[in-house]
Amino acid sequence: MQKIASGIFKLTFGTPEEFTPVSVLKPVTCLEALNALEDHPLPFLREDIHFQPRQGSVLLEIPLEPEEEVYGLGLQLKSFRQSGSKKKLRTNSDPSADLGDSHAPVPFYVSTAGYAILVDTARYATFFSGGCKRVGSKQDLEGFESAGTEKGHWEVKKGSGNMLVDIPAAQGVDIYVFCGGDMKDAVSRYNLFSGGGALPPMWGLGVMYRADWHADQEDVLQLARQIREDEMPCDMFGLEPGWQTNAYSCTYVWDSNRFPDETRLIQDLNDMGYRLNLWEHAYVHPDSPVFSELKPYSADSYVWDGLVPDFTQAEARKAFTDIHQPFIEAGLSGFKLDECDNGDYIGNWGFPDFARFPGGADGEQMHSLFGQLYQQTMLAPFKAADRRTYGQVRASHALAAPYPYVLYSDLYDHEDFVRGLATASFSGLLWSPEVRQTATREELLRRIGAVIFSPLAVLNCYMIPSPPWKQFDHDKNHAGEWLEDWPQLAQQCRKLLQIRMSLIPYLYAAFGRYRQQGVPPIRPLVMDYPGDSEVLDCFDQFMVGEDLMAAPVVYGNGDTRKLYLPQGRWYERLSGEWLNGGQWITRQVAEDEVPLYIKQGALIPWAEPVLCVRDDTVFNIEPVLYGAEAGECSLLCDDAVSYSMIAESLPFATIKVTQEGGLSIEEQDIISKRYRLAGVKYVPDGERG
């Protein structure tokens, strides 16, 4: 057993494989931040973990008490609490059933007992989270109860066994145990072990609009001008596959017929306050200028007749980044890294598991880490240019916290998309329930109401040429038939997007804490209130930072929202009421509203909404103090765009409201470069509700 840092232990069983998340990704662990935390011992003895080599696999049995609840295992769209479940963690683009397939399966789980475990494997490991009891175990005579059937069948209680992890094709494995005071502490230590949370540029916390994939250069500029004329907040403008000469597989070469002057396009968009983001994937077309150079450093199988680079090889990384360097030099802000997962259920695309890579990995191992290696490769030139990026990715795995890429999916069930916000946060992942095509105005508004409280607020309108607030119907949008009351719908969309823009300074500070402390900026209630049984299955309410709780309405559930208020006092922003926690409440919620609750004692730095965040934007801030006479909050005051500013520590400034009503600001000289503060507004606590 090896102690890595305060509360973090590495345990080795058998002979681990060479190709694992830790050995390949080589995380730059935040040791100073970790060792400043309170130390905690292992939650069990090492000898309590049973390691069993088997023919073609190894089996780990890790203690799990019946009262423990288990969460995590990556991005799980179909389930939240994993106690009693069986999940085979396999990277797949169409996880339509609750079997463990995922865009981002992570062999990492966290327990309500306050610890978490990373199983350092790139194999398709199967996790039995307490639902499988073994003969001879300490629970052998515990945990049975009648199923209540007429024939008297018996079944095991949900979660009454140990954690069993079946790892194929391995002869051993390392596990890392993160011991904290509670769930949030354990997850934070894992994120710091991974390298600390991603800190996007401030403009990345605005709104992204992805355009019709058939658009040419003039179409793009006309649409960009239209969004500005409609006074719709938007920071990032995304192009889908149509910008390239070939997209399946990719050439990474502009189609000069449709985009005759890409440098001018980027400049024109920048002048309007947009940052351009380009879609691509990592399969290299034979017509790509880099095809021949990459071929010796690629897999022995093609995808869409394109090469699959082995990003564990320095030569492959260099060739791939070299062809992207001109985009970055021209001012491109980032990329959408698509289809780096695997489509062997639907569409039958992707390299096979039996593929071999020059670096020694097989297809199974590479599928697990391909998305991570792709992110790592694409991030390097931005770091070299000292310019932060923020983009999208469709596959990830363990140790993902430092990477500024947000997961998304082509699947579209709204409840699953909201659930993904909850499950991703347990495993160091960022997820966006992006808005795509909608059937009704209510669906459009409900989906926007959820995405504005996600790590990346994306309106992915790649299927329609004009904005959805003019016409959400696909065929009518293409025909140029606008809604008669489209200005009203536009105002409703604007109202929701302005909530996002008003929270940018608050969110940016939350991401700063994610970087320095590892605390997920958006997380489900159980992470903050693990002792409250009412929140164990509550996947559709989120803590946003430390003091806000959002409860978006899932489309299809009508206008009635049942939600839970944890212990304490909460201010309901829609009604202006104060409510006691520890109770369920029901609210009627208009289609352009989102229930938002604020902790008593919070000082929230509400910002005047802007259309976009430029490098020189100064936010007008109104600090609002809720239900207290004194309070404080922090604002992050770096340059908001460079990597050099986050190499050491982050310059936070603290705003304090004193009992006498005074407003004191620490680091006044740095705060004025980004924020202009008004006087404090007080929201006194009213009658007890």
UniProtKB/TrEMBL annotation:
Q: Name one Pfam family in it.
A: Glyco_hydro_31_2nd
Domain Glycoside hydrolase family 31 TIM barrel, by residue range, is 198-509
Classification via Gene3D superfamilies: Glycosidases, glycosyl hydrolase (family 31), Golgi alpha-mannosidase II
User: Which domain of life does this protein belong to?
Assistant: Bacteria
UniProt keywords (A-Z) are:
Glycosidase, Hydrolase
InterPro entries cross-referenced by the UniProt entry: Gal_mutarotase_sf_dom, GH, Glyco_hydro_31_C, Glyco_hydro_31_TIM, Glyco_hydro_b, Glycosyl_Hydrolase_31
Q: Where is the Glycosyl hydrolase family 31 C-terminal domain?
A: 518-604
> What PANTHER family does the entry give?
HYDROLASE, PUTATIVE (AFU_ORTHOLOGUE AFUA_1G03140)-RELATED (PTHR43863), MALTASE-GLUCOAMYLASE (PTHR43863:SF2)
Q: Can you tell me which family this protein belongs to?
A: Belongs to the glycosyl hydrolase 31 family.
Mind telling me what this protein is named?
TIM-barrel domain-containing protein
Q: Which organism does this record belong to?
A: Paenibacillus rhizoplanae
